[in-house]
What does this fold into?
Amino acid sequence: MLKRLFLAFLLVPLVELILIFVMAHFLGWLWTLVFTVASSLLGGWLARRSFRGWSDQVRDEWGREGFPVHRLGEGAILITAMAFMVTPGPLTGLLGILFTIPKIRERVSRVLVRWAGDKILQRFWH
It folds into this structure.
């Protein structure tokens, strides 16, 4: 696990730098900078807006049904999207924007919750 995390922290900035240089080669440095800043600003605004909608939905479901456990994965994805927005770069900006779209967030959340549930079951039942 630690090796994978180290590899991710090494590869993501490397991929971001390569993408920035490729974009700068084709678009120029000014447009690359504009795209990177604009994606971060747009993503931050979308993340904040999505988080408000998500928290309203959680509050509503909590009042009607009790604690909505199925929404925890979406919250984790929104927090990840916000972290991606803080990280400058075209790849993380694009992923952050994608994670704020409700349909994509719900699908990724289902996969994440299913994966985490399988890992927990494997850990404790086998």
Q: What stands out?
A: The chain has a mean pLDDT of 85. The first helix runs from residue 2 to 27. Helices lie at 2-27, 29-65, 72-86, 90-99, 102-125.
